[in-house]
Specification:
With 217 residues, the chain is α+β, with helices and mostly antiparallel strands. It has 6 helices and 9 strands. It has 2 domains: 139 residues, no CATH class; 60 residues, no CATH class. Helix content is 31%, strand content 32%. Strands 1, 2, 3, 4, 5, 6, 7, 8 and 9 form a 9-stranded mixed beta sheet that branches.
């Protein structure tokens, strides 16, 4: 099972209709986020192509709750700006969707967040960021924004306890939280972590090494 990550972005609404249709951008290319992640053009294409083959699109959820779909997407594509989405909230059939629509119209909900698993990335020393090159897109949620920063250490612990490799940006931040210097954390993430992650046969060793760090609140 792959770890699911989240990436928050400002919801760039181009329009919201009275009947529940909306369109905007779920992700913008080339922008460094609070986790030092940068999504590049092409990162979603393989995932979108797979959905096209199946005649599907990623889910439209409320606050990343897998049991709370609030509508459907009718279009999702990459353009020069980012991940363009067009969706419809089921405001006539779902009270939660009607509530979400009201918040969109009022401006009290102003965020989209993507849920994905990470297939390929690299660390860019000059940009001091992780370049996300290939993402398996699961869903695009309407979320309250600006969102509180997700719990770093608890997310890392959860991933390790289920035998998964956690999101690299979270591990780097945890290392700094527990006392590593910026340069030490960067060095570990730029070389050691990726080398361990890329070697499938060493995945258990990677997990054991990370578990040995005493992540405490």
């Amino acid at each position: 099972m792959l770890t699911k990550h989240k990436l928050h972005a400002g919801l760039k609404i181009k329009s919201v209709s009275d009947t529940g249709e909306f369109e905007g951008y779920g992700s913008v290319f080339g922008v460094k986020d609070s986790y030092s992640d940068i999504v590049v053009k092409g990162a979603f294409q393989k995932s979108l192509d797979k959905h096209k083959e199946k005649g599907s699109l990623p889910a439209l959820l409320w606050q990343h709750q897998m049991d709370e779909p609030i509508g459907v997407y009718s279009e999702m594509k990459e353009d020069d700006n980012g991940l363009f989405v067009k969706g419809r909230l089921l405001i006539d059939d779902d009270p939660l969707a009607k509530r979400a629509h009201a918040h969109l119209k009022a401006g009290s909900i102003s965020g989209l967040s993507i849920g994905y698993s990470l297939n390929d990335y690299e660390y860019d020393n000059q940009k001091d960021a992780f370049i996300l090159k290939d993402l398996d897109l699961w869903e695009v949620s309407l979320v309250t924004f600006p969102a509180n920063e997700e719990a770093r250490i608890s997310d890392v612990k959860t991933a390790l306890n289920t035998g998964e490799i956690p999101q690299p940006a979270l591990v780097e931040k945890c290392l700094r939280d527990v006392g590593f210097s910026r340069s030490q954390a960067k060095a570990f993430m730029a070389d050691g972590f990726k080398a361990l992650r890329d070697a499938d046969s060493d995945q258990n060793a990677a997990i054991a090494a990370l578990k040995s760090i005493n992540f405490q609140f």
